Each structure stands twice: as structure tokens, then as C-alpha cells.
Amino acid sequence: MSEIDQVWVLFCATLIFMMQAGFMCVEAGITRSKNNISVAIKNISDLSVSVILFWAVGYGLMYGTSYDGLFGTSDFAFEKLDASGAYVQFIFQAMFCGTAATILSGAVAERCAFHSYLIITAITVTLIYPVFGHWAWAVDAFGDPVGWLKVAGFYDFAGSGVVHAVGGGIALAAVIILGPREGRFLDSGQPRRFNGSNLPLTMLGVLLIWFGWFGFNGGSALGVSAEVPALLLNTIVSGASGVLTGLGLSWIITRKSSVFYGMNGGLAGLVAVTASCDLVGVREALLIGCVGGCIAYFGDKGLEKLRIDDVVGAVSVHFFAGLWGLVAVAVFGADALGTGFASQALAQALGILVLCLYAVGIPFVLLWALNRVIPLRVTQYIETIGQNVGEHGANTDLNELFEVMQRQARNRDLKERAPQSPFTEVGQIGLFYNSVLFELERSFGHAEKQQSDLADVLEQKNALLESVLPKRIAARMNEGADQIVDQVTDATVVFVDIVDFTEYSARVSPEESITLLRNLFGRYDTVIQRYELEKIKTIGDSYMYVSGVTRDQADHCAIAIDAALELLFQTRQLGLSMEHDLRVRIGVHSGPLVAGVVGDLRFVYDLWGTTVNIASRIEEAGKPGKISVSQSVIERIGTEFTFERQARVRLKGIGPTVLYSIEGRKQSMTVKAPSRFSWRGTDAGSS
After folding, report:
1. What CA–CA distances, in Å, run from 206 to 259, 285, 291, 480?
2. With contact defined as beta carbons under 8 Å apart, do 585 and 554 qualify?
3. Domain Guanylate cyclase: where (predicted)?
């Protein structure tokens, strides 16, 4: 290798190194903010592990003196190499190895433990990648092929199979063993997309990877030659066609040009052309990229159907598109190789079969066995709070602000102030938030002074009424109404009941049982007040509220369901803090009812009618941890929420009834904030 060739290959190695930054940006931007620091740490760690282990073991297995074309037997942990060209070869191939290893990071993000990730990286760079690389690329001192696959005619110019399909295959095995992220798939199987922390950062990462790919394919020529410009042109054309294919497919199918499938289509096009970029022309490169973009789209959808959770789409981009790249060698490059389509297709098919067995089957068995000894996945608690804090203690300004807000909500004490700084966005939010708190305190002071000036008798009367009745009803009684009766044509009643509370209270002291109810129902009260709904009563471990009674609320049913979803969240948060499996059943029904103030000694604003009875029966028959609703509720809110049918059940005193489970709001819908409404119902006392 001449000096100018060495300079070119070293320059290309630095471009490939830049791809590591690109992978980090892609993965950190597409994962949630609570895990993006963890992803970044994994990327720099796998690069470091790859370089050291490739020097110690991998390079010798891949390019050492061949043992019957199976693996290398020399140059392990070398002190020095014979020639400067050998150093160039090692640096260049070390960057290839790092690329194969880092493909895994995005696929297993948000649930793979850090120590497990390093173990999988070590398996990749010491056992899987270098051995298969020896089979496909190893040559002797005279440049003649010695790897048994290469001898059999298998061809992969720059690594569609050796690098990308191998890395993607290991990622496929890992995500199957790990399982999907919590909440990624609903019970019905419907997939749920999580919002990435920074999509512009992801797109920057795609461009960095694309930029580095010039070194990937251009450097594989191993020198400056006349074919390099054609290699680079094929690379950029295939990537561009993949981007446009991903965008076009997503628009045709969903009427939206997806950022996710646009970027993955481009990467799949780059992966696919890598095996044959030295054999094909520009038109073939464009077609290869188009097919790669299609594979990235439909491959990802297929994995979703199988409930396989690949966070960044690494399997469809690198494994599926990489295999297509190997097939494309026979389809478009057989003439250039002078082998003929049939013989080259047979050689490529052999390589693909061996790759699938060795890069998917072997890692799957190893990871399955390893997972039985050392769990590869983080605990549910760490997955909930995020790996940034849970595994690395990497707190953020935004997380600190949230912690202050949570303490204020929990302790109901607004004296604590948020961290503030004029030099960061979160610090500026804290600054203004503290200003709002200061004004609130001033407003509270004025209100307290004004209240102290009221007559003692009126103050006691108002306090008495408001302590036992909804404020709006108490106001009507203070205005002189001697009877409160509201006949409502359409309202929504919600029953909430704690599952297995009787068993829990039998195991703990009465103080602990009351503390649980007080903490849980206190959280519920906060939610109900924020949505401006009416809490009717609590009976033991049951909680009841209603929407659409004292106000004319056209979307009362949707507001009631929004509040119920938040009650499920609050229940789970309290359970996590107690390390107790705390669950509730929620029953919801909409329809006409009658409400009014009952009694003279102790006032109660009560509800009665068939709607109340059905809601309570639905709660009894519902599933724990679910919001069970009737058909009338689905007819009101079915277009705004995702739901699934439970089963036909027999409700006591009602008869056979079909129940549904509300899973959450649809992605395209936004939660409607409560707004001011006019009075509803007829005051029988004033009529």
C-alpha cells in the first residue's frame, strides 16, 4: 500500500469514526429524555470496548493466519505490526468493528442494563463479527481468498452483510430476549409510539452517518483509484433514493410524511448498496436504495405486528436491508464479477444462510442462557424513572424542576422554590415559576385578610356548607334556596374501588389503612378539582365522582375519562412509592339522573337513578387496573380514545352487557382543558 493510499484509507477511517457520533445523535434524539444520556454513554463505551477487544482478540481472529478458512491464529494483542500498511489496515477495520457493535445500542435502548450491553458488545467483537468477517473477507499474504465463504464465491464489498447484517442480527436476537418496553404495546396488541427527546438531533445524526459512509465505501477500495468517485456517487444516490422512498411510502399509506421512516429509508439505502457499490451503476444504485427504503418501512411494521420492540428500527435498517444488499450483488453485480447470476445467487444464498445462523441463532442462544444467570433488562423501577438517573445518576435541570413540583404537590407546601438560573432554559422557567409562586403567596395573603373581615356567623355557615356540599350547591343554598333538586338529562358517573383493600387492611394496622386511603383519595381530590368535576362521596375504599351535573358540559364524558386516566396514573405512582401492587377498578356510565341535597341534620348532595346503578355494577364486573365503560360511553368518546372490547358480562340487576376498556387518548387528539360552563338542571325550589 503506497503512502498516498495509506493517507486515503486513514482519512476514510476518521470519517467512519464520525459515524459513531451520528449513531449517538440518532439514538439520543429518538429515545425519551429520561434515557438519552444512557444511550450516549453506551455509544462511547461500546466504541472503547470494541477497539480494545478487537486489538486483543478480534483482529487476530479476522485477519490472522487462517486455520482452514475458519478463523485466524495470529496477531492477537500485538505489540507492533510488520509494516505501516498493517497499522492502517487495523485502524480501518477497528472502525468497522465499532460500527457493527454500536448498531445494537439503538435497538435495545430504554430497557437494556448497562453491564448487559457491555457483555453483548464483547460477544459481538470477539466471537461473532471477527469470525464471520474471516469467513467472508480473509485473504493470504498474496491477496488470494482463504475464508471459506469467500472461497465459495460469496461477495460483500464493504459490509452490507459482514458489518450491518451481523450487527442487526445480533440486535434482533437481543430485542427478542429483552422484550418490548413497558407500555409499547397495548393489551390488544396495538403499538404505541413514544415521543423522542429531540428529532432535529436525530436528523443531524443521520447526516453525520451519511457523511461517514463516504469513508465506509470509499475506504473499502483500500487506496486512491479511478473507481472511488463512482463508489461515492453510488453511495449518495442510494441513500437519497431511500429517503424519498421512506417519505413517499409513509405519505401514501398514512397521508403523513414520517420523519422516522424518511431517515430510516435513507440509512437502509446506504446499507443495501454497500455490498455492491463497486459493481453497479448509478441507476442500479438508485433502485437498490428504493428497495432498501421499502424494506425499512415494511420491516419495521412487520416487527410491530410480532410485538418486537426495536426503538430506532435498527433491525429493519441494518439486518433486513443488509440481507437485501447481499441479494443485490447477484441481481445487479454478477456480470461485473464474471460469475453468472445462478452461481453468484447460490454463493450469496449460502452466505445469507450462514449469517442468519451465526449472527442471529448463536447470539440468541448465548443471550438466552446469559439472561438466566444475569438479567439483561433493568428493573421496572429503573425503567420507570429512566436509565439516566437509575443507572448513571445523571440528573438534569428539568428533572430537578419536576422533583420540586412533585414535592409541592405532595406536601401542599408552596414555600419551596425551584432551581433558577438566567443562563439555561430550565433555569429561566424556574425563575418565572418562582415569580408566580411569589404572586400566589401575595394573593393568598390578601384573600386571608379579606376573609377575616367577614362576619363570624356567615363565615361559620359558609364553612359548614362547603365542608359537606359542592361549593356551587352551597352557594345556591346561601342564596336562599330551601330545596336543591337537579334533573339532568345526560351526565357521566364514575366509580373507583381499590382492589384487595380488605386483604391489605387485614395485614396492616388501622393507621396504615387510613393513611393509604387518605394519601390516595387526597391525590384523587386534587385531580377532580383540577378538572372541575364533582366528588360525590367516599364509601370505605370506594370513590365516586360525576361530570356534567352542576354545569352544562357538552364533553362531560371525555373530561370524566381524562380524569379517570389520571387517577390510574396517580394510583400507580403511589403504589411505586410504597413498593406495593396498588390497583383499582373503575366503572363509568353515562345517562340521565337526578341529584339533590338530602337531609337537614347533615346535608348530602346525592345522585340516584339507573345511570348510578349501572356505573356501580360496571365497576364490580370490571378488570383491575382498567377503566371499564358501557356502550353509551363509547358512543360519546370513541373517536377520541383508544379502547378494546372486554366481553359480554351479566351485571347484577341489569342483565347481559358488553363492557369496554379505555386504554388512552389517541395520538392525534389532545386533552381538552376544563372550561367555564353555564348552570344546568332545574332548581325545584325556585320553579
Report:
1. 11, 19, 19, 70
2. no
3. 492-619
Cell output for 192 = 404505541
Give me 457's grid cell: 356567623
Contact criterion met (CB below 8 Å) for 9 and 223? yes
In eight-state DSSP terms, residue 312 is S
Task: Report how far residue 459's alpha carbon sits from residue 550's, in angstroms, rounded to the nearest whole number.
Answer: 24
pLDDT at res. 675: 43
CA atoms within 13 A on the CB side of 209: 26
Closest of 120, 233, 234, 104 to residue 168, by C-alpha: 104
Question: Is residue 198 within 8 Å of 313, Cβ to Cβ?
Answer: no
Q: Are 200 and 657 in contact (CB under 8 A)?
A: no
Within 13 Å, how many C-alpha atoms sit on residue 164's CB side?
Answer: 32
* Neighbouring C-beta atoms of residue 397, cutoff 10 Å: 17
Tell me which DSSP letter residue 109 carries: T
Yes or no: domain 482-665 corresponds to CATH 3.30.70.1230: yes
Nearest to 274 by CA among 226, 316, 333, 314: 333
Burial 548-564 (b: 16+ CB within 10 A, else e): bbbbebebbbbbbbbbb
CATH of domain 3-385: 1.10.3430.10
Q: Which three cell numbers stand for residue 404?
A: 420540586
> In the predicted model, what is the mean pLDDT of residues 377-381?
90
Out of 171-180, 188-197, 293-302, 328-337, which region has the weakest mean confidence (pLDDT)?
A: 188-197
Confidence of residue 79 (pLDDT cuts 50, 70, 90): confident
Q: Who's near 532: CB < 8 A, 6+ residues apart? A: 551, 674
Q: Is residue 435 packed enough to be buried (19+ CB in 10 Å), middle (13-18) or exposed (0-12)?
A: exposed
What is the C-alpha separation between 6 and 223, in angstroms, rounded?
Answer: 7
pTM flag (> 0.85): no
- Residues 321-333 have a mean pLDDT of 97
C-alpha dihedral (172, 175, 179, 180), degrees to nearest 10? -100
- Least confident range of 425-439, 470-484, 485-499, 507-521: 470-484
Burial of 226 (0-12, 13-18, 19+ CB in 10 A): exposed
* CB neighbourhood size of 144 (10 A): 9
Rounded Cα distance, 571 and 30, in Å: 29
Q: How far apart are CA 103 and CA 256, in angstroms?
A: 27
d(CA 587, CA 628): 5
Say what the pLDDT of residue 649 is. 87
First-last CA distance in the chain: 102
